[in-house]
Design a protein that fits this description.
about 170 residues; alpha+beta; Pnp Oxidase, Chain A; 6 helices; 8 strands
């Protein structure tokens, strides 16, 4: 016989999962502050490189994507991973709003300096994303600690990391 208690446990489980998801995708205050500065400089036309604004191996772009709820354009500054002639974007802070919006829209506008282009965004399957992330971390990705992996991590550890830190390939439309 099914009792009301089973339903309550199920609700509690869902609430715990939501709470856990919210905690894993929180962006620290200092990162939000740095993002505001980066966004301002990129909008002014500066060509920045991450992770240190002027120095690094990751060109910074403005990514503008349609909000999944409001339908309004939402813009964030992101470092782009360039590997094997392809461009990728990943989320060091988990499944945040821009990830949800990009999943829903499937396309975005990338802006660097005075040049903009429309790109399609395809979320990589776990196995493919793990290989790309592993190659990038071995190449010195400064965000590896946010993904919870190191250059010595196993492929399985990378596969677990990309479940909560999705990776998209961006292709010119």
């Amino acid at each position: 016989m099914i009792t009301g208690g089973g339903h309550h446990d199920n609700v509690s489980t869902r609430e715990n999962e939501k709470e856990h998801m919210a905690k894993t995708s929180q962006i620290p205050f200092y990162v939000r502050l740095g993002n505001a500065l980066t966004l301002t400089l990129l909008r002014a036309g500066f060509k920045l490189r991450g992770p240190f604004l002027l120095f690094g191996n990751y060109p910074m772009y403005l990514l503008t994507v349609r909000g999944r709820k409001s339908g309004l354009p939402r813009t964030v500054s992101l470092a782009i991973i360039q590997r094997n002639g392809k461009r990728y974007v990943g989320s060091p802070f988990g499944i945040v709003d821009w990830v949800r919006n990009l999943r829903a829209a499937g396309e975005a506008t990338l802006t660097r300096g005075r040049r903009s282009e429309t790109v399609t965004a395809r979320e990589l399957p776990t196995s493919e994303a793990a290989l790309v992330m592993r190659e990038d971390v071995k190449g010195g990705n400064p965000f590896a600690r946010n993904y919870g992996v190191t250059a010595d991590s196993s492929l399985e550890e990378f596969e677990r990391a990309v479940v909560s830190h999705p990776l998209f390939v961006l292709e010119r439309k």
